[in-house]
């Protein structure tokens, strides 16, 4: 059985679980409002400290917010707050460059990162509970001693990294420049929200060391920060550690809240932006009340009613009924100075943007004139409540600790959760109608239309940076020599990873259960042991098409009825596939689990495959395929799969398959795949959450006990027959970056080398501090990030080194990648590097089981790959015993440079001359579907 750490009640959240109604059609009672047991104090220097004690896992989330973002930027330095976020990860007086990442990863940290919003900048780590002091040491030295060693070299490197990030996440991201134009249309040039958070190339490059110093001195003092520590802590000891590391740091000058008036939009603003996309997309934006002000909650509900999934008005009208849109969305984006309400709609192939706009206007007019129904408001509220509760299922990252800092920033009350839910519950249909009328008028909006065409980006050549100085720029705080010594870890906490309990129904269905009463939530996955690799060679993508059809109607429920019923329950239902599995996932409140499970059971066992719905979904999948062609990351993945496995192998394609296969799949094909593979012998129902095993067994037996089917199918996808070429190029003219994949066929999940490969890959490219990322990002500045991974399928999956690099560094990046692969083969890992890679794998394991969904996915893997139920209990010792010799042997066995294929997606006329000298042979050209171009 799991240790008490994994099923202890989450004492911080007073979650009072309403019983599941006996009548599945009965309307469940509202989930009682939770409260968060936090303690907030302020240090003498102004640092706000928020502590939350939670013993469910032996981990601690450390989440530090500085109350500064683009809202505080100086004109002409747009994106500076984000650039500065990157600077904070460089060297400090007592922590040399790169040491913090190495120590934290080696200590088992997860979710170590930072983020910049319009009003704040955050830094966070989740660490084993005995490493809290290490995380505080790192964060405190950044706050107190960054300026002491700041130099031009560090600034120049991060300017390169951030510009790569901008190219990758804005310019090469489909519709990225279109969305950026919306903010520029909503806000005047002198407004801090006018620019993208990441800023422009010119502004990023214009930053100087003096700007960095001034920004730090003004905004990065303890009196402008709040620190949340949530997890397995002793509060008095945690307070003492915070006082030790942060208490002596000097205040910065008081920071006044930005006093900026946002001028209203009094006449409609219209902009057309050209982008490297095939389908038009329309963005509509309005200025709305700031976060947590009157009207904010009403508009959040309006966004859910208009664009919150398949039950929303825009989806039903534009996607489902009229079939003129590929996808729709709506959001109330709540910020400190003012918020924005945004609707985005992507056209189906052949549909013009003006038709989309007219259809959205009609739905907006209807909502203004008649308002929503009470049932729509209830449905939207239920969905938002479940989403909010599920967000605190996780301690670190964007979970509980971050949410408390968010509430503290905008309301001054870290425990605002119950009030947040209560404000949603007070909203009436009339309130929503009034807010829509007040704020979402046609003359008060900006409309930005993205159309296919040549993208125009201002990416000036970087000027020659100033010479790097000595780095001694003078600090703010007096040096304290004791800080130079990294703190030692406390006693290692005992932990047992979840094992779950497994049962089989008489019909062969496996039931895997993990009891976790931390929150009134239940996560469910129905896992079928057949995925895209089980599709016939002539119909790649059939498994995904079949899974998609499950939500589109049963013998007793239509597609709209399924969507409405799930949304009314405040649940989330989804389907998908991987190479080895088809999955139906469900997230629900404890109180609505039974009726939500009714829907899941119905769609899995009784799909109707209506012909009209098949045609709708056929068009949808073709639209997804068109969008996939616009995304260079997706193109590189599909091209790599095709090159490795060949066109006759089901793994030679993406999950969507090909357009000919989508067009030719018949109802008989879809129903036939379902009949063969969706059988109880081939499936498991994995449930993690607040439901006892006895109750779960009764519910599952009643809903799945009569499920009958043939014997579970066998089968093998066959032998790969990939290309003999070593270099694959997909031409994306004018692309600012090159997306790279260096790939080969790896190993299956049952490989005896699993533990050694995990440690080896961690050192090579699996960790942020890995050799690949340190070389190409931190040292060379070629990339925003380069990583590697093995995909362990039932039959050998791909090994991939992936990253997006500067166009003019394409050849140099490939050369460095092969250099690192060779080095991994040629020499054993040094003891310190081995220990860090090994410890990172072992000590981070508890952090990978934070949420019910995480636990469910891990238990599903046990079923999918036939692992023993005590697998996770034994895994830590297996990894901990890996030696340097075993790592080198695994590298020599599984990393053969001569078998690796380089896939490059970018501007061929600029990158081919760089790749030719590498001795990879003639380039094989493929199209944006990953298919060979016949020459």
Largest sheet: 6 strands, mixed
- Helix/strand-derived class? alpha+beta
CATH fold assignment of the largest domain: Cytochrome Bc1 Complex, Chain A, domain 1
The CATH superfamily of the largest domain is known as: Metalloenzyme, LuxS/M16 peptidase-like
Terminal CA distance: 61 Å
Overall number of domains = 4
CATH architecture of the largest domain: 2-Layer Sandwich
Domain Peptidase M16 N-terminal: 53-190, 516-625
InterPro entries: Metalloenz_LuxS/M16, MPP/UQCRC_Complex, Pept_M16_N, Peptidase_M16_C
Family: Belongs to the peptidase M16 family.
GO molecular function: metal ion binding
Descriptive overview:
One of its GO terms (molecular function) is metal ion binding. Belongs to the peptidase M16 family. With 935 residues, the chain is of the alpha+beta class. The chain has four domains: 218 residues, 2-Layer Sandwich (Cytochrome Bc1 Complex, Chain A, domain 1), CATH 3.30.830; 169 residues, Cytochrome Bc1 Complex, Chain A, domain 1, CATH 3.30.830.10; 204 residues, Metalloenzyme, LuxS/M16 peptidase-like (Cytochrome Bc1 Complex, Chain A, domain 1, 2-Layer Sandwich); 188 residues, Metalloenzyme, LuxS/M16 peptidase-like (Cytochrome Bc1 Complex, Chain A, domain 1, 2-Layer Sandwich), CATH 3.30.830.10. Helices cover 40% and strands 17% of the residues. It has 32 helices and 23 strands. The strands form four sheets. The protein has a six-stranded mixed β-sheet with strand order 1-2-6-3-5-4, with helices on both faces. The chain has a six-stranded mixed β-sheet with strand order 12-13-17-14-16-15, with helices on both faces. A six-stranded mixed β-sheet has the order 20-21-19-22-18-23, sandwiched between helices. The longest helix has 20 residues. The N and C termini lie far apart (61 Å). The N terminus is likely disordered.
């Amino acid at each position: 059985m799991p240790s008490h750490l994994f099923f202890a009640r989450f004492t911080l959240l007073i979650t009072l679980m309403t019983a599941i109604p006996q009548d599945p059609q009965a309307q469940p009672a509202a989930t009682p409002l939770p409260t968060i047991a936090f303690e907030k104090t302020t240090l003498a220097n102004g640092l706000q400290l928020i502590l939350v004690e939670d013993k469910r896992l032996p981990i601690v989330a450390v989440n530090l917010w500085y109350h500064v973002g683009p809202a505080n930027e100086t004109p002409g330095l747009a994106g500076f707050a984000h650039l500065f976020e990157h600077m904070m990860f460089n060297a400090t007086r007592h922590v040399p460059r790169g040491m913090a990442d190495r120590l934290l990863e080696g200590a088992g940290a997860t979710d170590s990162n930072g983020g910049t919003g319009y009003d704040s900048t955050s830094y966070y780590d989740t660490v084993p509970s005995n490493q809290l002091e290490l995380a505080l040491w790192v964060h405190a030295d950044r706050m107190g001693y960054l300026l002491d060693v700041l130099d031009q070299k560090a600034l120049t490197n991060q300017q390169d990294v951030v510009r790569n990030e901008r190219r990758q996440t804005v310019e090469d991201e489909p519709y990225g420049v279109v969305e950026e134009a919306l903010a520029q249309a909503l806000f005047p040039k002198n407004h801090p929200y006018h620019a993208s958070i990441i800023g422009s190339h010119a502004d990023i490059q214009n930053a100087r060391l003096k700007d960095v110093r001034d920004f730090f001195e003004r905004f990065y003092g303890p009196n402008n920060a709040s620190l949340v520590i949530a997890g397995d802590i002793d509060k008095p000891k945690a307070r003492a550690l915070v006082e030790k590391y942060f208490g002596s740091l000097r205040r910065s000058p008081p920071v006044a809240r930005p006093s900026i008036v946002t001028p209203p939009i009094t006449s409609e603003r219209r902009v057309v932006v050209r982008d490297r996309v095939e389908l038009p997309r329309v963005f509509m934006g309005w200025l709305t009340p700031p976060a947590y002000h009157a009207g904010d909650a009403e508009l959040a509900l309006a966004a859910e009613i208009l664009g919150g999934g398949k039950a929303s008005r825009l989806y039903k009208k534009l996607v489902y009924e009229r079939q003129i849109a590929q996808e729709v969305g709506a959001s109330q984006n709540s910020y400190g100075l003012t918020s924005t309400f945004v609707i985005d709609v992507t056209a189906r192939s052949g549909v013009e943007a003006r038709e989309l706009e007219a259809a959205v206007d009609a739905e907006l007019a209807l909502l203004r004139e008649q308002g929503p129904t009470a049932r729509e408001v209830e449905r939207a509220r239920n969905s938002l409540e479940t989403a909010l509760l599920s967000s605190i299922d996780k301690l670190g990252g964007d979970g509980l600790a971050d949410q408390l800092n968010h509430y503290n920033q905008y309301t001054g009350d870290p425990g605002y959760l119950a009030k947040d839910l209560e404000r949603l519950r007070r909203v009436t249909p009339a309130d929503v109608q009034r807010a829509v009328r007040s704020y979402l008028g046609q003359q008060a909006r900006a409309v930005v239309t993205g159309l296919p065409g040549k993208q125009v980006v201002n990416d000036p050549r970087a000027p020659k940076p100033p010479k790097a100085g000595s780095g001694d720029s003078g600090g703010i705080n007096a040096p304290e020599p004791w800080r130079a010594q990294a703190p030692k870890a406390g006693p290692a906490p005992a932990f047992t990873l979840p094992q779950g309990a497994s049962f089989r129904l008489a019909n062969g269905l496996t039931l895997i259960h993990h009891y976790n009463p931390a929150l009134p939530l239940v996560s469910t996955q129905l896992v079928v042991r057949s995925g895209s690799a089980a599709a016939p060679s002539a119909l790649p993508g059939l498994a995904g098409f079949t899974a998609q059809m499950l939500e589109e109607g049963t013998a007793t429920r239509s597609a709209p009825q399924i969507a409405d019923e799930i949304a009314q329950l405040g649940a989330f239902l989804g389907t998908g596939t991987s190479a080895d599995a088809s999955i139906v996932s469900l997230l629900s409140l404890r109180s609505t689990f039974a009726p939500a499970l009714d829907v899941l059971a119905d769609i899995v066992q009784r799909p109707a495959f209506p012909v009209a719905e098949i045609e709708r979904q056929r068009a949808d999948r073709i639209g997804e395929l068109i969008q996939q062609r616009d995304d260079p990351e997706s193109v590189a993945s599909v091209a790599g799969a095709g090159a490795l496995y060949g066109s006759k192998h089901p793994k030679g394609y993406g999950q969507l398959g090909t357009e000919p296969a989508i067009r030719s799949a018949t109802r008989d094909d879809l129903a036939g795949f379902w009949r063969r593979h969706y059988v109880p012998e081939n499936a498991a129902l994995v449930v993690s959450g607040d439901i006892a095993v006895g109750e779960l067994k009764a519910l599952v037996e009643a809903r799945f006990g009569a499920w009958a089917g043939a014997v579970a199918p066998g089968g093998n996808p066959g032998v790969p027959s990939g290309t003999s070429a070593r270099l694959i190029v997909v031409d994306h003219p004018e692309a600012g970056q090159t997306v790279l994949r260096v790939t080969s066929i790896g190993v299956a999940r049952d490989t005896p080398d699993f533990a050694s490969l995990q440690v080896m890959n961690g050192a090579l490219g699996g960790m942020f501090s890995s050799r690949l990322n340190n070389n190409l990002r931190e040292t060379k500045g070629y990339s925003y990030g380069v990583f590697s991974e093995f995909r362990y399928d039932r039959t050998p999956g791909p090994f991939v080194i992936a990253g997006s690099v500067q166009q003019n560094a394409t050849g140099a990046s490939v050369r460095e990648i092969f250099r690192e692969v060779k080095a991994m083969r040629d020499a054993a890992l040094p003891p310190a590097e081995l220990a860090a890679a090994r410890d990172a794998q072992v000590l981070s394991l508890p952090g990978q089981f934070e949420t019910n969904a995480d636990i469910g996915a891990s238990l599903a893997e046990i079923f999918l790959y036939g692992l023993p139920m005590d697998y996770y209990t034994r895994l830590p010792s297996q990894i901990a015993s890996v030696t340097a010799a075993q790592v080198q042997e695994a590298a020599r066995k599984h990393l053969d440079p001569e078998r690796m294929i380089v896939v490059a997606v970018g501007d061929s006329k600029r990158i081919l001359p760089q790749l030719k000298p590498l001795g990879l042979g003639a380039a094989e050209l493929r199209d944006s579907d990953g298919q060979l171009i016949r020459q």
